[in-house]
Amino acid sequence: MADENTFSELALPLFEGETTGHSCPRPQTKTPSYLKDHRKRLRERFVQGGANAMPDYELLELVLFRAIPRQDVKPLAHRLMKTFGSFNATLSASTTRLSQVAGVGDAVICELKIVEAAAHRLARSRIMQRPVLSSWETLLDYCQTAMAHRETEQFRVLFLDTKNTLIADEEQAQGTVNHVPVYPREVVKRALELNASALILVHNHPSGDPTPSQADLDMTAQIQRACGVLSITLHDHLVIGKSQALSFRSKGLLA
User: Fold this and answer.
1) Nearest Cα to 169, choosing from 150, 194, 189, 138?
2) What's the average model confidence in pLDDT over 171-197?
3) Please, what are the domains in the chain?
4) What is the mean pLDDT of the chain?
5) What predicted TM-score, i.e. pTM, was given to this entire model?
6) Which of 21, 32, 112, 135 is 20–30 Å from 192 (CA)?
7) Cβ neighbours of residue 59 under 8 Å, at least 6 residues apart?
8) Is 129 exposed, middle or buried (0-12, 13-18, 19+ CB in 10 A)?
9) Residue 18 has pLDDT above 80, yes or no
10) How far out from the chain centre does Cα 117 lie?
């Protein structure tokens, strides 16, 4: 006996515009009217008031509408919020952890990661090729957006030219929940390749507490010594927590 897929293929016309005598159209699932009304109200409220007019779970609903077009996504939005704690943390969650939430499939993961990528790209565009020392708050916003909700440590280097304009933003290493391997030699080597005159180091603490560890202090001192030999300025080392960032420079931790 032919399976369902075989029957579906047999029912298709052989050429564009051709019909078959035995095809039977599959019933189309319609979106219930109450869902249409709910979605319409949410979209109108977002257009009129923006994101500030909506709690996190409703903002998630708006994102989920595209991935799940004919189902009530409010329960899934609440599950995601309960699992990850916030809209930002949900977007930043790994695909592995997202897939473990009931109701989350490839389409949902794709939509969430598109929004995350758009947020990162927008934040990054505000600092690239611009003097970062005079736009410090914008730089901190970018680092928070890109790194605050990551589940593992990431080490980035921001490379600046002689005018302190950001010429490159590169991820140097990824680590575990409480450690990331950093090689001062590679950091300085890359600075020379880019003809950078100054650096800003950035890494995150998934625990949320930006207090630097002794390993952070030692690694920073090593990079600063290596930079000094080559007349490269180390402006700062930022440690990104969940809701705040710590600056080595402002805390007097850079010589």
Assistant:
1) 194
2) 92
3) 33-122 (1.10.150), 126-247 (3.40.140.10)
4) 86
5) 0.69
6) 135
7) 46, 51, 87
8) exposed
9) no
10) 6
